[in-house]
Amino acid sequence: MHRLARYCLMTQIVLTPVLLGGARPWAAALLSLLTGIGILAICLTANPVKPRRYLGRIWLVVAALAGWSLLQSLPIWPMQAAPFNAPRIALYPNAWIAMSGNLIWLAGSITLASMVAQSRPYRFTRDIAKVIIASCALQVFLAVLAVILGLETTFWFAKNAHFSDWTGSFANRNAFAGFMGIGIVASLYLFTQNTAQTQGKRLDQSGGMLALALIFAASLIQSHSRSGIILCTISVLLFVTFNTPATNRVKLLLWSGLLGSIGMLVIGVTDLDLTNRFIELARFDLIQRDDAWQTAVHAIADRPITGFGPGSIALVIGHFATPGLNANAHWFSSHNLWLDGAMMFGLPVIIALFIAGLWAVKSILVRSTNRSDRALAAALIGFVLLGGLIGWVMSLPALILPIAVLWVGVFEVGLAQQNEGFEHVDHKAQSPSPDRASLH
């Protein structure tokens, strides 16, 4: 049964990117089914594991968000002003159902990951990293296949944008690039596992992981995603920094900066399309994100406490659009997840979520005693925080799931090490004679 639960979790990591990032309702239903089967399988084992205490806090956050979004949709409020005159806060009263379903799936997947990880905490993170790498390799294969066959498709429907960019089965180049970034960090994590090895022996035994990281980096560049390149660069630097002893960090960062600058120079000369895209960052009339952020701020200022409810962003941005915002574009996001959240739920909710997130970050980093685990967690934390500031793709299940599961793996290792420490102290203090457990 544990094996079935593990397969259900790992299958989702491979399947979610293939299903257009997992954002479609039918895809979410399939993923939820796999999560439910996995949890049920663990519960039916002869010795089911006990849910961790932190899972209760996660489910409490989900319940609070779902409850608040339900309250927003009820016709119990004073008559609201434009853009929607009705005795409710939510502009779309039924949108809370789909949002709650997605949150329940995510919390269920985290619960499944935690219960699976408890049975093999020291192997779980490495196993998940390998599955992520396999999923990234599948996406690279699909992207290469599309180029060879001259296909302008996501393998589900014809592209209407990003025609010359690698996107795999994703509909968006930033999403594909973000997924490649996760694969790069996972590859580096496996490459640096054995700290006792010399660099030469590590290259000999784990050089394949480094080669895969380079392949994923090349694929990321072929996506021509500016945000993906920036996020990946920062995440890799975070990983290198946290995975290096303090005495060697400055030297290693200098070498990383030098090699990175040479690499970017080569890319800039050989890939003019990508170079031109970075040059366009100076033209705000093309990027438009500053206008989208200003629009979001105006909308939040109109309803700072209550928000406009789930699914309301497109209508809200259209109503509060600044004069410079392209009105012909479909703005389903402000390209900033934190502003999107404030528009939907209000500032108090987002501030509370931010505080809860900081507590979770601290817990993960503090409990981890392994250098590579801490580096992995830090790199993914930076990836999520910065990714949410400059785009919306971090809300895709294909990116959320592997990151959340890796965090769970790192946290479970920290808990296992802590529990072993307590058991070690207890044996030393109470056992009349040393046993095998106390000698390890």
Topology diagram in text:
Blueprint: H1 2-18, H2 25-43, H3 53-73, H4 95-119, H5 121-149, H6 173-191, H7 199-222, H8 226-242, H9 249-270, H10 272-279, H11 284-287, H12 289-302, H13 313-320, H14 337-345, H15 347-367, H16 371-390, H17 397-430
Helix pairs in contact: 1-2, 1-4, 1-5, 1-17, 2-4, 3-4, 4-5, 4-17, 5-6, 5-17, 6-7, 6-8, 6-16, 6-17, 8-16, 12-14, 14-15, 15-17, 16-17
Would you give an account of this structure?
The protein is mainly α. The chain has helices at 2-18, 25-43, 53-73, 95-119, 121-149, 173-191, 199-222, 226-242, 249-270, 272-279, 284-287, 289-302, 313-320, 337-345, 347-367, 371-390, 397-430. Helices cover 71% and strands 0% of the residues. Helix 6 packs parallel to helix 17, helix 8 (226-242) packs antiparallel against helix 16 and helix 12 (289-302) packs parallel to helix 14 (337-345). The longest helix has 34 residues, at 397-430. It starts with a helix and ends in a 10-residue tail after the last helix. The relative contact order is 0.12. Residues 424-440 have low confidence and may be disordered.
Quick overview:
The protein is mostly helical. Helix content is 71%, strand content 0%. It has helices at residues 2-18, 25-43, 53-73, 95-119, 121-149, 173-191, 199-222, 226-242, 249-270, 272-279, 284-287, 289-302, 313-320, 337-345, 347-367, 371-390, 397-430.
